[in-house]
């Protein structure tokens, strides 16, 4: 984006924030009812945990068209980006990190976890389909099972969509087209999104080596650069509401991302200097998924869902040079490689709530998840490695007892038993949680809680095998232990008519955290266990003024660290830092007659990069920014401008040794018509 457009966007923001007055029809919601934290409805101030509700208005104010970007502006979360607009790079997906736990966030859609082997593709969930998001910070495994060691994000979709069409165009090849409609109980939507090329997405320094007389010899130092060669996404949603108690959701999504890696920085005079600017290899990742969910809502305290979740990832790679810089010819078997991974989960989750009003509440539930993992790698030299197919069943029984000890004091005790069958290795676990809340008055409370969490190793972490001809470079470990964590939290909440305040102190300790380690000279990653610890402070405030202004701010201080468990010489058997200690989130929005505007930011400071086989080192802060403006000349039409990275910063949004950069300033100008 040129300077004129950048200053114009900032000018609109400043002009709008200078107005006064508010629409008489504007509705404010600062004291929401939440469901996710305890699996049944409660006022936020009565929930003994750090919670956050991201309303439809909050989501729109980020200017994002997908949930990966939108959730990056939540209070207290660190983002880990791999590409523009939340794009995935193979199985390296963009992440929402809560309380410093890298793979500890469970993402749900209407209460159903959509994680596939501890990953999720939030970039494939359009914001236009979402009604609100409920977030619970801290370990939530007792309520929602494996992986909820850092927090839970529950994306609640709309039950009925508007009749509208929308088209948008921007710089860097951006295009966006949307259509949605409803006919009584049936609604559907289709979204298409396209991006062009970004010349430099990431880079890293390394050495090209070879073996000579049994010794490793350096051929040349090199600076590898990665280019994003464009993406396309298609998303289809359909919803049918049988009645107030029963509805059906179906989603199908497809996406294609293209990348390439090239040599640069080879010193002049080196005989390999001619490789500068040459492409070593290029990749194309094709992903498609299906999600089906049948939801039953509060039928005399009984509720639940049946679900099916399928994801596939196909990797096409063209190799122009080997790892030792030898050129490949098209007739070489290693010139092209292909693999396809499939992950499937299906099952049910049902619960019954007995609410004895002011005395106590009982909840009992059960769930079953069938997991299946398949990997097809025709280029593997071993026939055993060409086809991997594993599966298992995960059963759970859970419950909670909420007792009103006095009119102001509440105690909650929860537990979950989990066990597996059908796999090569069986696991079982029982986790508990105890929480206490004291009401200072109707709008203010203090609370304290203790909980346990766990994470089962995924089928891929247990069984994946590596072949040098394959783009899949993860070695599974069948001896992996499940993660087990303990979480302590105490906090304070206060709500007024136009303000919401929250403060929390937390401590987290996880044993046998599952991670990946890449040793010096290796071209693949080992699956290993490590220990994790973190403690910190979270402060948030949200306000809505009568004159149309809204604002929110969050501050987090933490110090996440990990320590590996391995016998390898290069294992990091010491406590090493991750992410950053200081996190600031905030934003302002304003509504005036036909205008809506918003400005949001996320700032991570005192941060480090953490290589897998070397000590962490300091790096500069990142500052993510977005601007949103909507003008509605009448009830049927909207003109929308969104701008990302309005300061055009080149910040590193990854957290390991490879630098993945924030996308340069982009804008999208859209027109929407409602009919």
Automatic annotation (TrEMBL):
<keyword id="KW-0675">Receptor</keyword>
<feature type="signal peptide">
    <location>
        <begin position="1"/>
        <end position="24"/>
    </location>
</feature>
<dbReference type="InterPro" id="IPR039426">
    <property type="entry name" value="TonB-dep_rcpt-like"/>
</dbReference>
<dbReference type="Pfam" id="PF00593">
    <property type="entry name" value="TonB_dep_Rec_b-barrel"/>
</dbReference>
<dbReference type="GO" id="GO:0044718">
    <property type="term" value="P:siderophore transmembrane transport"/>
</dbReference>
<comment type="similarity">
    <text>Belongs to the TonB-dependent receptor family.</text>
</comment>
<keyword id="KW-0998">Cell outer membrane</keyword>
<dbReference type="GO" id="GO:0015344">
    <property type="term" value="F:siderophore uptake transmembrane transporter activity"/>
</dbReference>
<dbReference type="Pfam" id="PF07715">
    <property type="entry name" value="Plug"/>
</dbReference>
<keyword id="KW-0798">TonB box</keyword>
<keyword id="KW-0732">Signal</keyword>
<keyword id="KW-0472">Membrane</keyword>
<dbReference type="GO" id="GO:0009279">
    <property type="term" value="C:cell outer membrane"/>
</dbReference>
<dbReference type="InterPro" id="IPR036942">
    <property type="entry name" value="Beta-barrel_TonB_sf"/>
</dbReference>
<protein>
    <recommendedName>
        <fullName>TonB-dependent receptor plug domain-containing protein</fullName>
    </recommendedName>
</protein>
<keyword id="KW-0813">Transport</keyword>
<keyword id="KW-1134">Transmembrane beta strand</keyword>
<feature type="domain" description="TonB-dependent receptor plug">
    <location>
        <begin position="45"/>
        <end position="152"/>
    </location>
</feature>
<dbReference type="InterPro" id="IPR012910">
    <property type="entry name" value="Plug_dom"/>
</dbReference>
<dbReference type="InterPro" id="IPR000531">
    <property type="entry name" value="Beta-barrel_TonB"/>
</dbReference>
<feature type="domain" description="TonB-dependent receptor-like beta-barrel">
    <location>
        <begin position="247"/>
        <end position="645"/>
    </location>
</feature>
<dbReference type="InterPro" id="IPR037066">
    <property type="entry name" value="Plug_dom_sf"/>
</dbReference>
<keyword id="KW-0812">Transmembrane</keyword>
